């Protein structure tokens, strides 16, 4: 890659990343005819099956202050092979969830804590709401601590009064981050009662994310009509909304992990959001679903069911849980390229059993795929380098006549049958693939804390000794020497500084990304060297 083209490509690369980050952060959800135009404030009525009530009707909304302070009264603990969760007996909310097989830091002992009522007020709730009856205010449990010894493993909480009995059942599965949640309502009155269930996820905004490696943090939902849609915290802060859906799920996303409520298949739900921020609790945002009201006859019961996923964005797992859930692995606008790249990368890892080696092999395969395009580009660059002395002489001769210099330069190009833009298009065609692979490396939880060789123990973290960034900078310098130098003195100074600038920049990037760039540079140098030798440059 010649110096000028490299600068333009690098600028294009950074511009795309910045634009992608901006669009992700500001993406608005299209709410068409299903969205209401104003905030939802009216109380429930028997005439509206999908109407959302005001904040004091949903206990989960009322508990924001307690959530931020970590006050949920008594709790029960459940330990499975993948999860360690804490459930509040006040309303059955999950107020803390640890991922047993994921550590917070590389080489550390503490597990990743995804849900945590005392940190960002991050909780997940599922409960029942009635018409003309008070919702349950307290649950009971047989034990305080449960340890799964066989799967599926279930625990139950109960809320019993003179009017109804609610049995809340949580079921855990082996080697899974999915929890099945059932709310069974039994009518003890002499008359029919009307009930519905709701699922909510609420959390604050994390302001500690890496600006240089931006990834989306916020709400999202999926349904069969609208497919995957994001609802940023800014959108939630601007206005509340609701949309009626079928076969849907809602979620709160962050870099490698997420939480999602998955509604029963073909069930009609209303998705809604709330801005629960205040001076007392700080920033807090809620996304929820609520079902239609159903009538439960006397001495009868009804089961409301849903599923809760609390875990990593592991494609192999989430793709089997629910339709569209794998879209939470956010590759941005180039998903159509990134998803196949990850599929190939995953297959290579199954064979090599090392994500670093798999990444190297994927880079080689991409280079082979574009071999002919690169060859055309490098041939054009080699011819340009061969003409560099004549171009310099023309520049000196017509230093005071820029138009004459351009005319003579074009004559030289014509005589030597050189297209000055011949090296640009083949490289530009490859840039979207490079950017897509960038997002694959950044977004793949499979590479989080994945070792490569020697000192590279975590492909998702920076090189602790900066060996890869330095080698990458050296490779950039060698590339510059193989390609025609700029004729402009200022450009020469800029290109001379580029290897140092990119070395400093990549020193903060995940080592997996630097490894990819280094291998790509080495392959490019080898190809350019062979072509230069053939053309006696």
Report what the structure shows:
- By secondary structure, the chain is an alpha+beta fold.
- It has two domains: 3-16 and 339-534, no CATH class; 54-330, Beta-galactosidase, Chain A, domain 5.
- The chain contains 14 helices and 19 strands.
- The protein has helices spanning 3-26, 59-62, 64-69, 233-238, 315-318, 335-352, 355-369, 371-386, 388-397, 402-416, 424-443, 467-482, 489-506, 511-534, and strands at residues 75-79, 83-88, 94-103, 111-116, 123-130, 145-147, 153-160, 164-172, 178-187, 193-203, 218-223, 227-231, 242-246, 249-253, 257-263, 268-275, 285-291, 294-296, 301-312.
- The protein has an eight-stranded antiparallel β-sheet. Strands 5, 10, 13, 16, 17 and 18 form a six-stranded antiparallel β-sheet that branches. A five-stranded mixed β-sheet has the order 4-3-2-1-6, with no helix packed on it.
- Strand 7 (153-160) and strand 8 (164-172) form a beta hairpin.
- The radius of gyration is 29 Å and the shape is elongated.
- Mean pLDDT is 81; it is low at 1-8 and 15-71.
């Amino acid at each position: 890659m010649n110096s000028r083209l490299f600068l333009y490509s690098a600028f294009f690369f950074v511009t795309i990343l910045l634009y992608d980050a901006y669009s992700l952060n500001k993406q608005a959800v299209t709410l068409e005819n299903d969205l209401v135009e104003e905030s939802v404030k009216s109380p429930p009525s028997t005439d509206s099956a999908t109407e959302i009530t005001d904040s004091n009707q949903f206990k989960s909304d009322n508990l924001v202050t307690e959530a931020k302070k970590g006050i949920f009264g008594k709790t029960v603990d459940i330990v499975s092979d993948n999860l360690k969760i804490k459930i509040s007996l006040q309303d059955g909310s999950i107020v803390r969830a640890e991922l047993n097989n994921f550590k917070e830091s590389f080489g550390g002992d503490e597990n990743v804590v995804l849900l945590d009522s005392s940190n960002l007020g991050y909780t997940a709730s599922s409960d029942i709401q009635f018409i003309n009856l008070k919702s349950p205010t307290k649950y009971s449990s047989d034990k305080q601590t449960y340890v799964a010894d066989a799967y599926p493993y279930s625990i139950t909480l109960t809320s019993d009064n003179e009017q109804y009995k609610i049995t809340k059942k949580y079921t855990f599965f082996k080697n899974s981050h999915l929890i099945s949640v059932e709310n069974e309502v039994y009518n003890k009155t002499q008359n029919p009662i009307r009930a519905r269930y709701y699922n909510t996820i609420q959390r604050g905004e994390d302001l500690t994310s890496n600006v240089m490696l931006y990834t989306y943090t916020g709400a999202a939902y999926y349904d069969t009509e609208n497919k995957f849609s994001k609802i940023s915290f800014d959108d939630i802060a601007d206005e509340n909304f609701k949309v009626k859906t079928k076969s849907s799920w809602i979620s709160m996303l962050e870099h490698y992990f997420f939480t999602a409520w998955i509604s029963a298949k073909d069930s009609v739900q209303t998705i809604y959001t709330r801005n629960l921020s205040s001076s007392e609790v700080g920033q807090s945002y809620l996304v929820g679903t609520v079902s239609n009201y159903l009538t439960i006859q006397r001495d009868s019961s009804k089961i409301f069911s849903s599923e809760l996923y609390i875990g990593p964005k592991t494609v192999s797992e989430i793709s089997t849980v629910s339709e569209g859930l794998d879209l939470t692995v956010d590759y941005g606008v180039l998903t159509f390229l990134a998803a196949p790249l990850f599929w190939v990368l995953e297959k290579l890892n199954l064979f090599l059993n090392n994500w670093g080696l798999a990444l190297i092999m994927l880079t080689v395969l991409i280079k082979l795929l574009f071999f002919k395009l690169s060859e055309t580009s490098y041939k054009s660059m080699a011819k340009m380098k061969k003409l560099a002395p004549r171009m310099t002489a023309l520049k000196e001769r017509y230093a005071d006549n820029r138009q004459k210099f351009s005319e003579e330069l074009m004559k030289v190009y014509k005589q030597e049958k050189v297209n000055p833009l011949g090296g640009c298009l083949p490289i530009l065609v490859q840039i979207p693939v490079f950017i897509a692979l960038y997002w694959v490396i950044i977004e793949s939880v499979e590479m989080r804390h994945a070792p490569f060789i020697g000192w590279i123990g975590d492909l998702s973290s920076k090189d602790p000794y900066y060996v890869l960034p330095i080698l990458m900078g050296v490779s950039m310098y060698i590339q510059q020497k193989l390609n025609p130098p700029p004729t402009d003195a200022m450009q020469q100074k800029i290109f001379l500084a580029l290897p140092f600038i990119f070395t400093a920049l990549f020193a903060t990037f995940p080592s997996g990304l630097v490894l990819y760039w280094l291998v790509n540079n080495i392959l490019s140098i080898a190809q350019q060297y062979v072509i230069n030798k053939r053309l006696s440059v």
